[in-house]
Amino acid sequence: MWVSALWKREYDQSRLFLLFVPVVHFLALGLQRMNKWFFTDPYFVAGNLRNLKNMTDPIPAAYDFGSFESVGRLWLMLAVFVLALVQIGTERRNGSQELLFSLPYSRKIIFLHKWMLGAALLAGSLLINTFIDMVVVPSSPMSPYFSIVYHLTQLGYSLLLLAAIYTLALFIGTITGSVAFQVILTIVTLMLPIGLGPLITNSLSLHGAIDIAVPSGIGIELQNTLNISRYLTLSYDDFSWLQVLGLFDLLIVAFFCGMLSYARNRTENNGKLVIFRAWERAIRILVVLCASMIIGLFSSSLFNANERLGYDIGFIAGLVVTTFIMLKIAKLRFKV
Amino acid sequence: MVPIYEQIVQAFKELIAKGALREGDKIPSVRELSAQLLINHNTVAKAYQELERQGVVASQRGKGAYVAKPAEEPGMERERVRQLRAELRRIAVEAHHLGIGSRQLADWFGEEIQRYGRDEHADRPQST
Amino acid sequence: MLTVRNLHKAIDRRPVLKQVEFAVAPGLVAGLIGRNGAGKTTLLKTMAGIIDPDHGTVEYEGQSVHRHPSLKREIVFVPDNPEGWFGYTAWGCADLYAQVYPRFDMAYFKDTMRRFGLPVDRNIRHFSKGMRMMFSTALGLSTKARYVLLDEPTNGVDPIAKKQVLSLLMEAAAEGVSLVISSHLLEELERMTDTILLMKDGAVETHTSEDVAGGRVMKLQVVFAGEAPEMWLEGRHVRVLENIGRVYTLLLNTEPGSAAYEELQGMEPLLMEPLPVKLDDLYVWKLGGETDVG
Questions:
Q1: Looking at the domain assignment, is residue A174 inside a domain?
Q2: What residues form the membrane-spanning segments (chain A) (predicted)?
Q3: pLDDT in tens, A192-245
Q4: Which residue does chain C place closest to B41, by CA atoms?
């Protein structure tokens, strides 16, 4: 299973980048901790300690509820996102993918080595910086509140969340035909629940279905749960085992979907938006639906007399127009 | 058009006749000649086989091929001599049709003999 | 033995490969010819496992290379531009390939690079077109794989580099490496190859290089008695290559079903001299009708 040549190629491709990531991670986490407890006016430090003493549960507060870790996670997410682009998207354009595919290895093995590099980057940076933090905290004024459980929880949670996002970005790379569209589709996927939630609840409420969706809060709940980007900056107090389970499922599903579609990669479609026809159709339908809902909501605000009729007219007109545009676009082959 | 392997055979014979290659000289390996002339190695090998068959070169196992001693006894090469006579006849006929006079043809032939011909008395024992 | 069986591939719903069938025996040199856009690159990439076929198989010693990628240790693809190596030095490429191909010959690679005067420590991106092809060819041959597939190794390369690349290929062939070379250099290919693979309408026709006509086409120099038979000359089985005064150079279809030769004999021309059919005659005969491909 282990192919040193593939590992070496993946490593060579992003060597500088890999060294850079733990440093940035340190600037976001270890350095900030030191700033707060070592390089701040002793008067403020003493004040902070006094506040902690009066609290019933001082540990999360001592660790600022994980806000430094959150910033670290944001940087790491940016890093693995770029890595996923380099590993899948840009390789379609610069001949690397053809070179890789001509080697005597199966595409599944190639995908596995790509993924392992990203996983190793995450694990490496998180381990190093957790370790640094675990050295900084006990030697700082906040040492009475040192909690090994806190550090390990943050480590595990960050690793799982970032690995899931990274794997999702890889998977999206395996179905898109260019870097640009990999970027767009990954961001859209991460942000989709935020936009789609209100769009659907508003559309439903116009048609009288509001009573089911909104008061019970299911819509909001669902929207929050599916919004992966929210977990990046989640407070330490809000971590839950259910999230862990969900993220783990996402990781597994994205991994296997990615591996399968990489193995079936349609090399000749590189440069198109999406390289599989089924996915292209699914994405096109989603785009048409969203655009039609937006146009529907917009036109409902123009028809004060009958908002529901306004919505329906807008929705159907939107459906026709965007379908037409989509069919036109499908004929183009973008070289981005 | 003469097939490529025959062109190679002819070229070697000319080089030997001109004295550019002498008896005992090593000739390039199939690989070298193939790369030099950009000709398929099977074609080169075929030409070498033909040269060997005709006794123009002789190969020594593991050492490559060398220019062989010229034929001592024309009787041994009767078939080649017959071919040579036929070739000369063809040339004479062709010259006739092209309206080339006998003297002109003899002159041209003389030039070629000057260039490639062999002095019978010096080089080889009297035959027939 | 490298065998291509019943290969089909459509790209953007346009069939590019249609029932491609041929085999390249060990130690042979095959030339792949065809018009631009005829699908030569697609065929080579499919043979190298870069593109998946819709139907059919590419087999090495009877096993599908798409199903068993490890077989590709014996099949190396040399693309027309080593883009995938940009960012690497020649040295770095050899180092990586040495880990991939078990018989990689580092001494041969170094020797060849020195012979060509190529720097081993410069980024491939900064190589000229000629240097790139010399490097790629040397790298591909250094793997000592049994089959090397080359996509237009001489396209856009200057005459000196071209000669060097082709010499290197001929040397390797003499040592038993099988080559598949796609090229438009018909004259060179005719001398260098054992087999010609002619691509037309997505299919491949195999010809031996020694006798490209193979009894299927005949080239004649003809002088007609009296008026030239215009109708006959424009027929499906006849192509006029050249016409100087009364002398016509013709290609005739001599495959079963064509009576062109018998018809010509019946006209009792003043002169009817057979000429050897060369590869470019075959090319014009087979592919000349189409002004545009793709």
A1: yes
A2: 16-34, 74-90, 111-132, 152-172, 179-200, 241-262, 283-303, 309-330
A3: 888 887 888 888 878 776 655 555 566 677 777 788 888 888 888 888 898 899
A4: C174
